[in-house]
Amino acid sequence: PVLRLLEAQLQDQRREHEEEMEALKNQVDLMQEELEKQQQAFLQTLQLSPEIQVEFGLQQEITRLTNENLDLKELLEKLEKNEKKLKKQLKIYMKKVQDFEASQTVVPVERRPHERNMQVAVQRKEKDFQGMLEYYKEDEPLLIRNLIT
C-alpha cells in the first residue's frame, strides 16, 4: 500500500512537471515569435531612409505616450471616484457629529442639577489629585465635551 501510494504521488508529480514544462515551452515559443517579429520590424526600419526611420520612431513614441496617457486617465478617474466616495462619507460623519452634539445640548431637566455637581466634583478632584473619576455611562459625552472646553 505504501509503495502504491508513493508511485501514485510520483506519477502525479511527473504529470504536473510535464504540464509545467509544456506551458513553459509554449511561453518560450510565443516569446521567440514576438522576438522574430520585432527583429524583422527593426531590420525593415534600418532599410528605410533616415527620414522615415525618424517618423517611424515618432509614431512608436506617440503610441507609447498615448497608452501611458490612457493608463493615467484611468487612474485619475479611479482617484476622483474614491475622492467623491470619501467626501460623501465625510458629510455623513459630520452630520452624525452634529446630530450627536445637538442631542447632547438637549438634556432632561431632572439630570441638570446632577451634571452641575458632576462638573464641580470633576474640577475639585482634578485639583486635589489626579486619579480615577466616577461617572454615569450616559454622562460620558457631556463629560468629554466639558473636558474639551
UniProtKB/TrEMBL annotation:
Keywords: Coiled coil. Residues 3-103 form a coiled coil. This is MYO5B protein.
